[in-house]
Amino acid sequence: MSPPVAPVGWSRWLVPPAALSVHLSIGQAYAWSVFKPPLESALGLSGTQSALPFQLGIVMLGLSAAFGGTLVERNGPRWAMTVALVCFSSGFLIASLGAATEQYWLIVLGYGFVGGIGLGIGYISPVSTLIKWFPDRPGMATGIAIMGFGGGALIASPWSAQMLESFGADSSGIAVAFLVHGLTYAVFMTLGVLLVRVPHGEKPVSGGPGAFEGPQVSARDALRTPQFWCLWVILCMNVSAGIGILEKAAPMITDFFAESSTPVSAGAAAGFVALLSAANMAGRITWSSTSDLIGRKNIYRVYLGVGALMYLLIAQFGDSSKPLFIGCALVILSFYGGGFATVPAYLKDLFGTYQVGAIHGRLLTAWSTAGVLGPLIVNWIADRQEEAGKSGPDLYGTSFFIMIGLLVVGFVANELVRPVHPRFHIPAPREAADAVQRQQPESA
Amino acid sequence: MPSSDSSPNQPDRRPLIVLAWLWVGVPLAYGLYELVRKATQLFTA
To answer: Any stretches that span the bilayer, and where are they (chain B) (predicted)?
Structure first.
């Protein structure tokens, strides 16, 4: 499938909604927890078992983004969005069959494996196209799309809960809910498939420099540069630090103020989690747009430096003031989202737009690593502290200092980022086109 | 900032732009509304 080229007069403002239709859909993954309790009671599963589809989905997200990135670059965003639509929706349909027949392995296979491929390909599908359409504001453009991934859970969480309430939380009710999800997301994502276009002649329609101007580095060569691995460390550390709070937000705020004069109720803790989701989403568009003004390196200095300071404030004074605790947590979560949304523009600055989607896909393995690392640190330490007879804020103090350490490591990695050595550059656009042709038979 | 090259013979894309943004904006607004409802519990519960 050849990439769909925009006709003359096509507006670049049609591309962000195309990207959003995909990201708002696949962002549903973060609302998987809505299905956990009904699945556990309908199919007799443990908590660990019911988390399997989500966990496999995130693993497949990282793998398919890493290994499918080159295909996405070669075949274009429409092909990628079509693959994402087919995989994500059919994942739900297979899961529906699994729930209807009470075959849990089908739910894991459908939602986790097949749907997870849709997550990875869908996540990277609009990134390089958006950067090419908005070379003057790449941070804002990718921020809009990646904000959608955060927003997807906000939509899916109440919507899925409402559906389970209507259809019932037994296996047939879950099956119908999965079926409706699959069909609805297929229709919703179709907008992206129909609307997405690459700019004519790889040039933006108006404003900004040409898309292929400046140094260009291939995905294969990018992996050989220290800059790629510095960014990998930066993303991994920033995400680990954010997940540290996100993973245990509700029990954390409850434990922190359990012995205060104003303890936090379950309803208030749920409100805190919702507020963190809002900060995560708002950070994606706000901070990545800010990076267009102050530069990528500076914005990561803020994420990592101020983030460490926020963790220090929580560790030292968090239990003395609820507004301070909430404020610091919100800032950390906004940096967590901002880190995700700004990284494609950082990659574009360093490696150019030539294969930025493929490079981004490979970088997302840092997310998969952080997804294991962050929760592991916080949960393991909290469990050990509880065994040692500690309670309240003492359960988390050590974790917070580890998070500060991780952020400092990320800060140092950011300071080490320099422009890519010219020996990795592709000499000229004409030669870049030749290089693409040469690479195709190798990876076909 | 101009969004595209314009010429009198080219079709007007504005209705399509509005429709596309509504397509994604309406569900997002619903999600944000539900989020605000839940978040207020932090200060009222």
So the answer is: 15-33
Q: What is the CA radius of gyration of chain B?
A: 18
- Minimal-distance CA residue of chain A relative to B18: A14
- Please state, in angstroms and rounded to a whole number, the distance separating the CA atoms of residues A64 and A122: 10
Domains annotated for chain A, with CATH where assigned, are 12-202 (1.20.1250.20), 219-424 (1.20.1250.20)
Which of A300, A313, A305 shows the shortest CA–CA distance to A346? A300
Q: How far is the C-alpha of A149 from the C-alpha of B31, rounded, in Å?
A: 12
In B, which residues are within 8 Å of A14 by CB distance? 13, 16-17, 20
pLDDT tens-digit readout, A81-120: 999 999 999 999 999 999 999 999 999 999 999 999 999 9
Task: State the Cα–Cα distance between residues A356 and A19, nearest whole angstrom.
Answer: 16
d(CA A3, CA A325): 48
Tell me the three state secondary structure of residue A21: helix
Are A6 and A203 a contacting pair, CB within 8 Å?
Answer: no
Q: How close B1 comes to chain A (CA, Å)?
A: 8
User: What are the helix and strand counts (H, E) for chain A?
Assistant: 21, 0
Which value does ipTM take for this structure?
A: 0.84
User: How confident is chain A (444 residues) per 10-residue block, as mean pLDDT?
Assistant: 80 94 94 89 87 87 89 92 98 97 96 96 91 91 90 89 92 97 98 92 47 79 96 95 80 84 81 86 94 96 97 89 91 95 95 90 89 80 84 85 95 96 79 51 35
Q: Give the helix, strand, coil percentages of chain B, each rounded to 5.
A: 65, 0, 35
Answer for the pair A110, A97: CB distance below 8 angstroms, yes or no. Answer: yes
Residue B40, class by beta-carbon neighbours within 10 Å (0-12 exposed, 13-18 middle, 19+ buried)?
A: middle
CB contact under 8 A, A24 and B27: yes
CB contact under 8 A, B28 and A277: no
Indicate yes or no: CB of A271 within 8 angstroms of CB of B7. no
User: Is A361 in contact with A347 (CB distance < 8 Å)?
Assistant: no
> Which of A9, A151, A270 is closest, CB to CB, to B41?
A270
Which chain A residues in 207-226 lie under 8 Å from chain B, judged by CB atoms? 207
Phi, psi (5° rounding) for residue A418?
A: -130, 165
